[in-house]
Amino acid sequence: MPERWRFVLITLAALIGVAVTLSLGRWQLQRAAYKQELFDAVQRQQGLPPWSNAQLAVQPGAAPNPEAAPWLHRPVQLQGHWIAGQTLYLDNRQMQGQPGFFVLTPLRLAAPHEDVVIAVQRGWVPRNFLDRTALPEVQTPEGLVTVQGRMEAAPSRLYEFGRAGADPDGQKSRIRQNVDIAEWAVASGLPLREWSLLQTGEASEGLRRDWPGVTAGVEKHHGYAFQWFGLAALITLLYVWFQIVRRFVRPRHARS
């Protein structure tokens, strides 16, 4: 290959490499900015005054865009009655690195909003490793209760074999791998809303509530951006050294 064409191809490859790496670096910065905006929005929501029964009851049961729903991450302080007989236990859930169950119990709002029922993620309990189907002891107070927390989407889903919502022991157990609130509403006959309340506060009733905090997670994207920009700089330095300094500058010094 003629020396001139070799120089042209290397120059073209270097330009493409720098353009691609700079583009990827900018994309990572854009991802970081987007996640920071989401985090800031969550922080603003969590800093709002808590809603009461009346304010929550007027919210629609399903939002076209749940991520933009006005109730998402909103603090609430609700009064109602536990429906203890419909409590479910989500299996294979961890808290502080320990496996156990997330406990979900429906809460029927106090009158005059008793037609609204909310699935409450009440907290976490350890599991019995000797008997996989044994349910841990959880106290569910009777009568009117006050529950504090923040509104969230339905509990996150874990990968499972077989159909969603299947019982792990093949019986009608209250242990579930995942829960679909719409299916739960049909099976229980309760008018469950399609979101949930994450109960907060100190440990009580046999439940721990050390829920993980919401983080922006921008450090990872900043790190990736630094790597891409560093690679772009490396390509530029190598090109300048081998294709300009050693090709044009050094021969000129040698002749002088």
Tell me what you see in this structure.
With 256 residues, this protein is an alpha+beta fold. It has four helices and seven strands. A five-stranded mixed β-barrel has the order 1-3-4-7-5. Helix 1 (3-46) runs antiparallel to helix 4 (218-255).
Secondary structure layout plus pairing:
Elements: H1 3-46, H2 53-57, E1 75-82, E2 88-95, E3 98-109, E4 117-126, E5 145-152, E6 175-176, H3 181-188, E7 192-199, H4 218-255
Parallel strand pairs: 2-6, 4-7
Antiparallel strand pairs: 1-3, 1-5, 2-3, 3-4, 5-7
Summarize this entry quickly:
The protein has 256 residues and is α+β, with helices and mostly antiparallel strands.
Distance between the termini: 29 Å
- Along the chain, the helix and strand elements come as HHEEEEEEHEH
Overall geometry comes to elongated
Strand content: 15-25%
Q: How many DSSP-defined strands?
A: 7
Q: Average the pLDDT over all residues and give the rounded result.
A: 86
Total helical segments: 4
Trace the largest sheet across and list its strands.
Answer: 1-3-4-7-5
- Computed Rg: 28 Å
The poorly predicted ranges are 163-171
Which structural class is indicated by helix and strand composition?
Answer: alpha+beta
Outline the biggest β-sheet.
Answer: 5 strands, mixed, barrel
Helicity range: 25-40%
